[in-house]
Prior knowledge:
18 helices, elongated
Amino acid sequence: MYVDGKLLIAKSDKPIYILPKMANRHGIISGATGTGKTITLKILAESFSDLGVPVFLSDVKGDLAGMCQPGLDNEGMQKRIAKFGLAGKGWTYKSFPTRFWDIFGEKGHPVRTTISDMGPLLLSRLLGLNDTQGGVLNIVFRVADDRGMLLLDLKDLRAMLGYVANNAKSFMLDYGNIAPQSVGAIQRALLAIEDQGGDKFFGEPALDIKDWMRTDNNGHGYINILDCVKLFQSPALYSTFMLWMLSDLYETLPEIGDPEKPRMVFFFDEAHLLFDEIPKVLLNKIEQVVRLIRSKGVGVYFITQNPKDIPDNIAAQLGNRVQHALRAYSPAEQKVVRAAADSFRTNPSFNTAEAILQLTTGEALVSLIQEDGSPSVVEKAFMLPPQSLMGGIDDAIRRQVIASSEIYSKYDEMIDRESAYELLQLKYDREAAEKSHSEMQIQRQKTEEEERKRLQKEADIKEKERIRLEKSIRKTFYGTTTTSKTKTPIERFADNAIGTVGRQVGNKLFRSVLGSLLKNNK
């Protein structure tokens, strides 16, 4: 609730506010199941929206969609309103400007990115690749970049993998060894991701993150709700999407220092999935992004059951803390409670560790960043009731909200422009045509050579037949096949006669050998 330039979120014996200019110091909402984390999330999101700050929420259970509808009055709500003294102070049931999103395009505007935009590091995590396979994927991206081939969707990546594998020897000196076993492993991993719906996530039009950073006509920040009920069934895809979104925001936005209020606030539910089995190199990148994105006016809030789910280097950057009740039945769980208590600035009026175990639903330990940048003393307080509807909505209302959005038609239809797959297909078609042309030339040369040999053979046969006939005639006239050097006039006359007859008879005999030719000349 936005009051006097501050965000009222809870009350103990005094009101507890988040200072807008300290809201980008990040935060954490933690607690066991059923202790009120979702209520706290809604209160913060509503307050930021009233402040004019766009918000992103991941809706894992499907119970955040009601923010587009005003809350319902009942006896329980009336008691809470009276308890907090909210009547007549601007608190009322109301809806908030909401946009629904869905990677699968079923319960919201489709959310897509391209393979190139995600990059090899996050994609390696999504595919579950080892270091060797991740190295090969890096080579594939590098080859594509060097040749100006865009990797937009899964078929582009598959085509590029095939191209690199088929030319591994020629790439080895420039890029390193490309093991066919690694290429095969990546291809199999792509099939698994496709089965999980990854083919709908990768493509165009890609999400313009600035579409999540808008306000409505009244200056209220849009609450962008990503439906994750189905997506959450694919933890690798869910967590990689969240990390990509944070990285994309960091790369897109310019530095603005410490603004009077955040440019945008992101809430990441089930945050433990972001860090499960995460490679060191990726964890370092996330730590860097979380540390530096604050100066771009973005606040990041993690929601998780166990505060120890957040790596220490990242948890140290989360200044605004709301701790709901934890359960501790084992030594390990008790250790978690003590660690959570130690993260707060001590309040001498109660034992923080004991208080964490005794909190009721909707009650929390709260410590927020003060004006001077230091954390406040931890307070035990009750969170305010949300003003919007608790729970989900029916499909008709959801469809109405989606259809009324000004970006309704921007992302609905997937497009497939020329990229690596199409360029490689053109390359293969051109090479096939060139090969076919070359083969035709070789075949033509071969045919011409065979024809030349055939004609030469026919000429040789004709010459042999002429010589044989001449010898036969000479033997008939002279009794020998040889001629003397000195001839009488009669002999010379006989030779001329023999030559004439021989040529005529030879022609007849030769044509009779090539019967078809003789027939054609009749």
